[in-house]
Design a protein that fits this description.
This protein is α+β, with helices and mostly antiparallel strands. The protein has three domains: 232 residues, Bira Bifunctional Protein, Domain 2 (BirA Bifunctional Protein, domain 2, 2-Layer Sandwich); 135 residues, YbaK protein (Alpha-Beta Complex), CATH 3.90.960.10; 87 residues, Rossmann fold (3-Layer(aba) Sandwich). It contains 13 helices and 31 strands. Strands 3, 7, 8, 9, 10, 11, 12, 21 and 24 form a nine-stranded mixed beta sheet that branches. A five-stranded mixed beta sheet has the order 16-14-15-17-20. A five-stranded mixed beta sheet has the order 28-27-29-30-31, sandwiched between helices. A hairpin with a 5-residue loop joins strand 22 and strand 23. Helix 2 runs antiparallel to helix 6 and helix 2 crosses helix 10. The longest helix is centred in the first third of the chain and has 21 residues. The radius of gyration is 29 Å and the shape is globular. 41% of the residues are buried. The mean pLDDT is 94. Bound molecules: adenosine-5'-triphosphate (ATP) and magnesium ion (MG). The site of magnesium ion (MG) has 3 residues, from strand 21. The site of magnesium ion has 3 residues, from strand 21.
Length: 561
């Protein structure tokens, strides 16, 4: 440590909220250089290298071959796949001195698809799995949490190419089990959830979410059957259609009821429809959006909101926005809109709005609502959409138990892309019978820099980092309270036995400072050469459990496994 470039800080850095950001900075593992851009100091680099090594081992084990693309890429392939536009403001775009367009790659599907097309033209070249461990760039709107959401970050991305759908499914399954091994080796607690594919395109996709309170991804988990899905991908069970035995639609004067709460209060106060038990869930809220510029009205039960992220996921890649130009559409009466009206726009409903259900909704006149507005009798939606907010306690789509809402960090994502890129690049190979076969592709990512932060999110305490042995920069932190030379000798012995050691040989520090630093730096074991060292004993402290035991020096190496 007397030679090591590590500077520990006593205070948390300003504006760092996520524990990983605070602790990795305080312990001298990383330093901020730019918004979403971090320098890896020596201890941090050692952790990142361990994480990288583990991922590489598992990728090679599943038959992956490692390559490495540049991050600076020509624009043309991304234009051909459509992602130059789909990614919007999230990519860094550049122009070189000749005026040619480039980008800094957010991910490399196009390039891998072209590589396979150009070099592997025969069916004998498949199946093929290629991977790289490479720096990615995304102009994130909100870089956040230090390494958790950077604008430059390290990713393992792999790509599978297969002649058949069954082949693709095999490559996907192989990645899924490799990812389980990888995240287990990192000591991460995680859930694989059904996901939407987003800008990658394709259909089947799963995210690996590591549960932490600082995670940005919300997902539901069923405590009974284990179902897990991210909030965008959760499906809402539809109730069975109801009988059409409702009284006729009735329009009521409901002055000053622009909100659901004020409406429900008035209905109950006046005993509307002969009832005084009206609730927000009896009302139908109609929200007007634009989808690629076209109007879309979505009806959801009034005790829920429209969750724009869910709508965006359902309608991807269309651009969705809240419509607010009611002046241009006098037929749409803000706050009093009902689907039984004569206005013209697409109308989709929440899956709970099924045939025969009766609702309270706007009467398409300011200050008036209608009760007993029956789906299938008084209005006919064009279809359903997963748009309503998801809540804890909603029924699990698999078993009906109330789900829990959890937070996690997405550490990995696997996709069956199918033929999206093969179609874009007309990637066919000559099959055994000479006839062309269009390839099926999968893509699979792990955020390596994000993984480092996520491990810290799950493994730390108020005193500092607590590394799992698999990724720790060293296995043992040796703290001599008096005899530094003896410590260096012990370190040399451990080193020879294959145990990686960090020795605190810094001159002139108090025992307190050394031990505090050892806890902050977080090696799995601290070995203290203290009072009983003269009798041939050292103290071994387990960073994770806090256990302390006296061990004879001669047995030290053996006791540390
Ligand atoms: P997010 O939803 O968190 O923005 P994403 O779905 O856009 O991530 P993918 O395109 O699936 O990410 O990329 C694969 C992996 O790369 C992710 O699972 C994540 O671990 C990592 N990753 C993505 N964006 C970032 C980022 N800004 N900083 C660090 N890691 C990232
Ligand atoms: Mg993802």
């Amino acid at each position: 440590m007397s030679r090591l470039l590590v500077r520990t800080l006593r205070e948390d850095p300003a504006s760092a909220e996520a524990p990983s950001h605070r602790l990795l900075t305080r312990a001298g593992y990383i330093r901020r250089v730019a918004p979403g851009g971090y320098l890896w100091l020596p201890l941090g680099k050692l952790v990142l290298d361990q994480v990288t090594r583990i991922v590489r081992e598992e990728m090679v084990a599943l038959g992956g071959q490692e390559v490495s693309f540049p991050a600076l890429l020509p624009r043309e392939p991304f234009q051909r796949s459509g992602r130059w536009d789909e990614y919007g403001e999230d990519i860094f775009r550049l122009t070189d001195r000749r005026g040619t367009g480039y980008l800094l790659a957010p991910t490399h599907e196009e390039l891998f698809a072209l590589l396979a097309r150009d070099l592997c033209g025969s069916y004998r070249d498949y199946p093929l799995i290629l991977f790289q461990i490479q720096t990615k760039y995304r102009d994130e709107a909100r870089p956040r949490g230090g390494l958790l959401r950077g604008r430059e970050f390290l990713m393992k991305d792999s790509y599978s190419f297969d002649l058949t759908e069954a082949g693709l499914e095999q490559a996907y399954a192989a990645h899924r089990s490799a990812y389980r091994r990888v995240f287990d080796r990192f000591g991460l607690r995680y859930t694989a959830v059904a996901a939407m594919s987003g800008p990658m395109g394709g259909s089947v996709s799963e995210e690996f979410l590591a549960e932490t309170p600082f995670g940005e991804d919300r997902f539901v988990g069923c405590p009974a059957c284990g179902y897990a899905a991210n909030v965008e991908a959760v499906t809402t069970p539809s109730p069975a259609p109801a009988a059409h035995d409702h009284p006729p639609l009735q329009v009521l004067d409901t002055p000053d009821t622009p909100t659901i709460d004020s409406l429900v209060a008035l209905l109950n106060a006046t005993g509307a429809g002969g009832r005084t038990d009206w609730a927000a869930a009896d009302t139908l809220k109609n929200v007007v959006l634009t989808v690629d510029g076209e109007l879309l009205v979505i009806g959801v039960p009034g005790d829920r909101e429209v969750d724009l992220k869910r709508v965006e996921a359902a309608l991807f890649p269309a651009r969705v926005a809240i419509f607010d130009d009611f002046a241009s559409r006098p037929d749409l009466v803000l706050g009093y809109l009902g689907p039984q009206g004569t206005w013209k726009a697409r109308y989709l409903v929440d899956p709970r709005v099924v045939d025969g259900t009766a609702w309270v909704t706007g009467a398409n006149e300011a200050g008036r609502h209608a009760v007993n507005v029956v789906c299938g009798r008084d209005f006919a939606p064009e279809g359903t959409i997963e748009a309503a907010t998801v809540r804890a306690g909603d029924p699990c789509p698999r078993c009906g138990t109330g789900v829990e809402l959890r937070r996690g960090v997405e550490v990995g994502h696997i996709f069956q892309l199918g033929r999206k890129y093969a179609d874009a690049f007309e990637h066919d190979v000559a099959g055994p019978d000479g006839r062309p076969v269009r390839l099926s592709m999968g893509s699979y990512g792990i955020g390596l820099t994000r993984v480092v932060a996520t491990i810290v999110e799950q493994h730390h305490d108020e005193r500092g980092l607590v590394w799992p042995a698999s990724v720790a920069p060293a296995h043992v932190h040796l703290v001599p309270l008096r005899d530094v030379d003896a410590a260096l000798e012990i370190a040399a012995g451990l080193d020879e036995a294959g145990v990686r050691v960090l020795v605190d040989d810094r001159p002139g520090l108090s025992a307190g400072v050394r031990l505090t630093d050892a806890e902050l730096l977080g090696m799995p074991y601290t070995v203290v050469l203290g009072r009983r060292f003269a009798d041939g004993y050292v103290e071994v402290r387990d960073r994770a459990t806090g256990d302390r035991r006296e061990v004879p020096v001669a047995e030290l190496a053996g006791s540390l496994v």
